Amino acid sequence: MKFKRxxxxxxxxxxxxxxxxxxxxxxxxxxxxxKPKPAEMPAKVEVLGVRKAWNIQIPQVxxxxxxxxxxDVVTVAGSDGTVVAIDARNGTEMWRGKxxxxxxxxxxxxxxxxAVVTEENNLVALQGGKVLWxxxxxxxxxxxxxxxxxxxxxxxxxxxxxxxxxQSGRRLWTQTRNTGDNLVLKRPGVLLGLGDTLVAGxxxxxxGINPANGSSRxxxxxxxPRGTNDVERLVDLTGTVSRVDNILCARAYYASIGCVDTSRxxxxxxxxxxxxxxxxxxxxxxxxxxxxxxxxAWRRSDGxxxxxxxxxxxRTLTAPLAVGRTVIVGEGTGQLLFLNREDGTALNxxxxxxxxxxxxxxxxxxTVVVVTRKGGVFGYRPE
Length: 383
What we know:
The chain is mostly beta strands. The chain has one domain (63-349): Methylamine Dehydrogenase, Chain H (7 Propeller), CATH 2.130.10. Helices cover 0% and strands 49% of the residues. It is globular, with a radius of gyration of 20 Å. The two termini are 36 Å apart.
């Protein structure tokens, strides 16, 4: 896992503000000792029928892509800056455009405007495959932009949240948080809309923000910094969240998972968890994959463990997708796993193109959409 350390120019403090770019260098990767040998893949079963509905090709994906779903449109991107909007009903390519540079974050879209962030720290908005506008950001960004309510929201690596007008790119407001953290994860964080509130992950907290002016409405901690050094104290919220009504459940990096009642801005429960990918869920349970390849289900009401599956131990897994009777997980050798949501037993698995699943599975138009490292975009329909 890559970390970033903020290195201010000309001093020891991180310089913040719209006009000041934070200088950031690579700190370390979590390598340590050799990884344990992955468990043998269980024998394939086909209890659930799974049909490939369509596929298209984009350039290879070597950045932390988040595929965006808006209505029946799935928007994806390749590492080189190619952005593609797809009609998930039939796999038709609606448009294809270029951001002009390799990407570090994407994609956000409301079905009309799509937004990505380049390695040059440029926020690029596209419409119909054409670049609509570009804005320079003050720091690197790994969280995909959020496009909602005719605005584009961005969360940068210096933990600033910024709002732009969707059509013109005019900067509307900036909220900067001085958390005292020196490290930031090179992976997507939490940024989503919930009713009339913008919800962002800031360090180990979910923060409700007024999208009109950037003022905070509430804060709820999922995890608190612990340990004696910067790495041990890192508790950023990462990946997808599980939402049912006003309850959001999120993961704090290698620390815990927890659920927040956003109508009151209070934490309902939290449990220790050792993972780095996001969560999915339904009205009964929250599902997640741990760093050691174990897949867990926690009871949504109180966080108690419902089931745990170690058949894929030490394999690299994506965050899960809970759909109907299944929990769907991507795997590092290119397998897409379909599990029974009741107990985690295998229902089926498919291999799109024998390359690793590059983005968490998403659901659009009754189709499970996955993207591979080779740039294959596949739509599957479980029977």
